[in-house]
């Protein structure tokens, strides 16, 4: 069993038109000291799957069934009090937008110390030293000076490093990184991903990485799960995934990467159509309206997620 196990998670939202399901039997495992990437287009269910782990859900969201085990305990059965002792300390969240995730009214030091005092119980010089060490780990220069800075004095990349430092300051066993490179330029994206990889190697922290960018995770993730319209459609170790991509949706995502263009006159591949919303009632495989390999059975029967190789699963009727 991994340090974090999501099993058969079913979740939906109460709407004016009734209950609309958003996640269907979502299952994945995060191993200790590994990076597991949850990949897919916007709206496919990546973020809501991650937020379910910490039960940071909108009021209209409802978990119908499933289990989420962290260190052997089902998080869905814990009281709010017990969960508060896990959030931030044992499972830390790097939110999606670094530009708005820090309080503009307080210095970086104030915000780091608040987290350290709450979750580590340190005070005074010990807490400040812990804050300095955390900022040094994420390669922020002139740390003692930067501690006194306000968020508006940091660039986007520096803000993201400060947020990662907050997770490190509490010695979190698991970090959930939700699109950690959003709104950052390509060079800074690479730096942030290198920092996360270094954290994994140096501290043994496990990282659940939420992203839409397959190219970004190829060199850093240990495992990849691809989501489409609320379901895991393919899951495999990273090298196996990129070597033997199976699901038509996964193949289409890879074809759409600019790095796959070898001829300057070649046009970028696109996936026709749009991902369905939870309001749409699509029978069978939800990818079939956009799939170039769709067969009659695809519009009638939901394909099961089955093993096709060692630790490699895919949900496609073509495998039958």
Compute the number of helices.
10
- Alpha-beta content class: alpha/beta
The proportion of residues forming helix, as a percent range, comes to: 25-40%
**Strand line-up of the largest beta sheet:** 6-7-8-3-9-10-12-11
Distance between the termini: 29 Å
Mean pLDDT across the residues is 90
How would a crystallographer describe the biggest sheet?
Answer: 8 strands, mixed
Name of the CATH first level:
Alpha Beta
Topology, number of strands:
12
CATH architectural label: 3-Layer(aba) Sandwich
Q: How many domain units?
A: 1
Q: Summarize the helix and strand pattern as letters.
A: EEEHEEHEHHHHEHEHEEHHEE
Short description:
By secondary structure, this protein is an alpha/beta fold. The protein has ten helices and twelve strands.
Report on this model:
The chain has one domain: Rossmann fold (3-Layer(aba) Sandwich), CATH 3.40.50.300. It is built from ten helices and twelve strands. The chain has helices at 46-53, 80-84, 108-120, 124-137, 143-146, 156-169, 186-203, 214-217, 238-243, 248-255; strands spanning 4-15, 18-30, 35-39, 61-70, 73-74, 91-94, 174-178, 206-211, 223-228, 231-237, 306-309, 312-314. The strands form two sheets. The protein has an eight-stranded mixed β-sheet with strand order 6-7-8-3-9-10-12-11, sandwiched between helices. A four-stranded antiparallel β-sheet has the order 2-1-4-5, with helices on one face. It is globular.
